[in-house]
Amino acid sequence: MLKYVKNVVLAVCSVWSALVWSDVVIKVTDSNSRPLANAVVFLKSPDLIASSKPLNKAEIAQSDRTFIPGVQVVTVGTAVDFPNRDDVRHHVYSFSPAKTFELKLYTGKPEAPIVFDKVGIVELGCNIHDSMLGWVLVNDTPVYGRTDETGDVRFDGNPSDSYKVDVWHRSFPYGAPYESFPLNDQDDSSAYSISLQTPGVSL
Fold first, then answer.
1. For the whole model, what pTM was predicted?
2. CB atoms within 10 A of CB 49
């Protein structure tokens, strides 16, 4: 496990506080039905997607030859700064289909941020320091959360819409997309269980 993972802080959030959603509890397991911690779960519905706006400010810094945060979650259209706070130059790049870009050898803060304008998983690297890895998770919903040690994530609120979810875990292999699941009606139950099938995701 790479040391920068401890810098990842993901919390249930919404950038539009006026919107409410149904009480939903989701358990995420691996392909062997074991609870999967630290999976990022995006809650999606037509209302939530319509409410989504670019974040006002986001950054992924380089410090101690590490991307901080190691995982950055943004909504579509968000501009992200990549300040270099090290005393060495970095060459940040991504070849991911959701965003291909290069910030060639530089120090300080590049003049223009990178705009992430497509839903997807953007994997980051440094052309000088191969140990540097990071991710930008771009989605069209402003609501997401991270599973706890029991594999659960909870979204609280009032009835709003039918939902589906996109799920990501850092053990996904390079180039793997989000896994998407509909949350089908379960009578009066608001608890759901989903099992990730992406190769390599197991405990």
1. 0.85
2. 16
Nearest to 141 by CA among 57, 40, 67, 69: 40
Kindly state the DSSP code that residue 173 receives in the 8-state scheme: P
Tokens 């590049």 found at: 110
* Tokens read off for 141: 């919903």
Residue with tokens 């630290």: 38
* Percentage of the residues of the chain whose pLDDT score is greater than 70: 83
Q: What is the pLDDT of residue 203?
A: 59
Burial of 18 (0-12, 13-18, 19+ CB in 10 A): exposed
Q: What percent of the chain has pLDDT over 90?
A: 73
Give the model's pLDDT for residue 6.
Answer: 32
Phi first, then psi: what are they for 97, rounded to 5°? -60, -30
How is residue 3 annotated by DSSP? G
Residues with Cβ within 8 Å of residue 96, at least 6 apart in sequence: 120, 121, 122, 123, 175
Specify the 3-state DSSP secondary structure of 105. Answer: strand
Give the list of residues 6+ apart from residue 171 with CB closer than 8 angstroms, or none. Answer: 200, 201, 202
Backbone angles phi, psi at 73, to 5 degrees: -100, 130
Return the structure tokens found at 60: 């992924």
Neighbour count for residue 168 (Cβ, 10 Å): 24
* Pairing state between β 133-139 and 120-126: antiparallel
Q: Under a CB-based contact definition with an 8 Å cutoff, are residues 101 and 138 in contact?
A: no
